[in-house]
């Protein structure tokens, strides 16, 4: 790096310094051969060195003349306008002489006198923290691409790199995804002019491939600039306030699909009047309009506002703040409470323990988090929430499926849940089973996951899942009109005291490690207290925030996609646009990026949630229960549309071998076990080739 403009300003008169500097700059650029070099950033990167060695010219930041002594600003010193003239000439030569300018250097101290360590003396030397930033700028330019080639993912180094290059397998996957997306768009157009329809080739499914390409473009190319996270507490609370206002302004009444409570009939008295020889029909009382405890709209609202808070937490980098960290940890615990609660209710009400149910849920939870690693070069555990809820779903399934014939007994259910809690707590905390499992996955499937990170996350919220299972049992096995079940007003004060006690306990903690140790147990109380307060009255149960519920419907996709199209640098930075300039703060700059990127992010998440559902239906197929509801006349009509292919009428093909081949293809396409096995086989092959 060369930067000698300040020396010329301090040692020559104003009418000489710029001229002397111009001559020196011309000599240096001629000797270094800048004119013969490609423009900065246009040359392909070296397979090993990345950017390689470069020579940069650093413009000089004008000093703060008002702070400097008169001996430094008078004749023979640095007079006002002298440095500006030197910089002006330097900037004019950037294109003609192909100079590599470090434009960021002077900007680090513009309008910031506190950045200068000797502003009352020489006026040019910066404080250590600013000098460190300048050094990092140069080191990033020189080393980022090389480090990405050495270490790869996570790609926390977002500038001056091509993200370490790509293997031929990743290039093939990207090409396939892009071609598939184009094919879906084309076939969608054909449906307007033709009756041709292919379930897997339409925009409902193709948007999934488009989202994968968008993630790659956002976080693996320089199409979008990336910025650093800078935690400012006020910015966190400003965003929380905005989301709270949006949620509050969209509160609406729940749309009742059916009465929650059975209609109560009035029984006629023995001496009731008889009209026309018949007893007067009983008059039903008006059913109570009550959405119920933790109704669907309410749980989706709960997921939605929690997801908004988690997004703000990640975007602002608020993990450094212990109270905010504790709050977010509670939200994750609440998510897992709903996992245990919701799946328990399903298994107790539907009694469906089939492979089809397991495949449907596991595909729905993991289809996006399994596709992204092959496109982005990450791994499955990077999107930690999907494996977390998948693991706990399997725990709930095993708990409910074993001895499922006794699930009508509350005592047996309670014993099963307790036994499951003890078993998995012992396995996860006191046995090397996870270590062995991860070793087998790496040996057989070439899957390399972070064992320490997984053990931390899976044990941190283990207890709350079983509490959710108990809540699901209560929901299904307790009479709906039981007073203690529908009237939570009695629990208002205990709930407030529980939250207040939790807040007081956490406020006395200064070490994150202490809270993490206590979290599995103490997190249960504020979650249950919130449920009691949220359902304290019928009116509160019958109203919900539509905006929060909308976000809650795609909360899983939002959580996963945020890593690449909301954040950047594999969550270490934030995604920005290159059309706005500012000081990097929320209110002074980045709010404009959020105003553009967040709606696109939410829209993509919503479409991907719908696309994931369509893909799962294609893989799993229609349920038998649903197929029985079809009108046979529809099947007859469809049979009339079948046209036998001409080639099947040929004697050589219309044979026993052809029938066997057709039967085999039909069994493969209709066998869910085979389809799931084929998907796992393809993933295993890609793991070995990647």
UniProtKB/TrEMBL annotation:
Listed InterPro entries: Cas1_AcylTrans_dom (IPR012419)
Gene Ontology annotations for the cellular component aspect, listed alphabetically: Golgi apparatus; membrane
Signal peptide: none
Pfam families assigned to the protein according to its UniProt record, in alphabetical order: Cas1_AcylT (PF07779)
Protein name, as recorded: Cas1p 10 TM acyl transferase domain-containing protein
BP terms from Gene Ontology: carbohydrate metabolic process
Keyword Glycoprotein: yes
Transmembrane regions listed in the UniProt entry: 172-193, 205-224, 236-254, 324-346, 382-406, 418-438, 458-478, 490-507, 513-533, 672-689
One Gene Ontology MF term: transferase activity
Topological relation to the membrane, as annotated: Multi-pass membrane protein
Keywords: Glycoprotein, Membrane, Transferase, Transmembrane, Transmembrane helix
Keyword ATP-binding among UniProt keywords: no
Every Cas1p 10 TM acyl transferase domain range: 289-627
């Amino acid at each position: 790096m060369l930067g000698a403009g300040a020396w010329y300003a301090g040692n020559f008169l104003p009418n000489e310094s710029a001229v002397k500097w111009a001559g020196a700059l011309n000599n240096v650029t001629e000797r270094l051969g800048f004119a013969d070099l490609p423009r900065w950033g246009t040359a392909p990167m070296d397979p090993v060195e990345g950017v390689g060695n470069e020579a940069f010219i650093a413009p000089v930041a004008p000093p703060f003349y008002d702070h400097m002594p008169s001996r430094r600003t008078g004749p023979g010193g640095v007079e006002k306008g002298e440095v500006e003239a030197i910089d002006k000439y330097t900037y004019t030569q950037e294109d003609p002489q192909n100079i590599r300018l470090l434009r960021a250097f002077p900007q680090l101290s513009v309008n910031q006198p506190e950045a200068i360590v000797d502003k009352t003396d020489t006026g040019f030397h910066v404080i250590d923290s600013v000098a460190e930033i300048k050094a990092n700028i140069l080191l990033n330019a020189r080393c980022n691409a090389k480090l990405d080639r050495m270490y790869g993912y996570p790609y926390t180094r977002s500038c001056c790199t091509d993200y370490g290059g790509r293997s031929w397998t990743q290039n093939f996957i990207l090409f396939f995804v892009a071609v598939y997306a184009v094919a879906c768009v084309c076939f969608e157009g054909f449906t307007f002019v033709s009756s041709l329809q292919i379930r897997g080739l339409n925009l409902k499914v193709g948007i999934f491939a488009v989202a994968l390409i968008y993630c790659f473009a956002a976080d693996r190319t320089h199409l979008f600039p990336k910025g650093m996270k800078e935690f400012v507490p006020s910015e966190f609370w400003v965003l929380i306030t905005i989301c709270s206002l949006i949620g509050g302004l969209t509160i609406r009444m729940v749309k009742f699909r059916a009465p929650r409570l059975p209609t109560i009939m009035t029984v006629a008295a023995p001496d009731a009047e008889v009209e026309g020889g018949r007893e007067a029909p009983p008059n039903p009382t008006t059913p109570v309009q009550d959405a119920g405890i933790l109704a669907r709209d309410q749980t989706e609202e709960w997921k939605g506002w929690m997801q908004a808070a988690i997004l703000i937490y990640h975007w602002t980098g608020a993990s450094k703040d212990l109270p905010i960290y504790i709050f977010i940890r509670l939200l994750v615990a609440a998510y897992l409470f709903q996992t245990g609660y919701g799946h328990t209710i399903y298994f107790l009400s539907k009694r469906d323990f089939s492979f089809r149910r397991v495949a449907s849920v596991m595909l729905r939870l993991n289809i996006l988090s399994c596709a992204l690693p092959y496109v982005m070069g990450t791994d499955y555990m990077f999107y930690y929430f999907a494996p977390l809820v998948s693991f706990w779903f399997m725990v709930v399934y095993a708990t409910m499926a074993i001895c499922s014939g006794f699930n009508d007994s509350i005592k047996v259910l309670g014993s099963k849940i307790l036994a499951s809690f003890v078993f998995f707590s012992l396995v996860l905390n006191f046995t090397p089973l996870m270590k062995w499992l991860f070793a087998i996955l790496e040996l057989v499937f070439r899957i390399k996951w972070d064992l320490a990170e997984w053990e931390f996350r899976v044990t941190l919220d283990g207890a709350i899942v079983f509490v959710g299972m108990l809540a699901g049992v209560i929901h299904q096995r307790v009479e709906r009109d039981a007073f203690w079940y529908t009237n939570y007003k009695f629990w208002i004060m205990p709930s407030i005291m529980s939250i207040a006690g939790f807040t007081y306990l956490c406020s006395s903690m200064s070490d994150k490690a202490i809270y993490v140790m206590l979290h599995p147990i103490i997190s249960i109380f504020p979650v249950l207290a919130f449920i009691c307060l949220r359902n304290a009255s019928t009116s509160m149960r019958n109203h919900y925030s539509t905006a929060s519920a909308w976000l809650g419907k795609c909360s899983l996709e939002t959580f996963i996609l945020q890593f690449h199209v909301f954040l950047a640098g594999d969550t270490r930075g934030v995604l920005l646009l290159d059309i706005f300039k500012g000081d990097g703060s929320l209110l002074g700059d980045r709010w404009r990026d959020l105003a553009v990127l967040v709606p696109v992010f939410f829209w993509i998440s919503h479409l991907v949630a719908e696309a994931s559902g369509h893909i799962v239906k294609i893989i799993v197929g229609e349920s038998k229960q649903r197929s029985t509801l079809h009108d046979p006349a529809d099947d007859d009509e469809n049979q009339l549309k079948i046209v036998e292919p001409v080639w099947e009428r040929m004697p050589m093909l219309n044979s026993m071998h052809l029938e066997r081949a057709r039967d085999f293809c039909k069994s493969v396409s209709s066998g869910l076990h085979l389809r799931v096995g084929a998907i796992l086989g393809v993933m295993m092959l890609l793991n070995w080739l990647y």
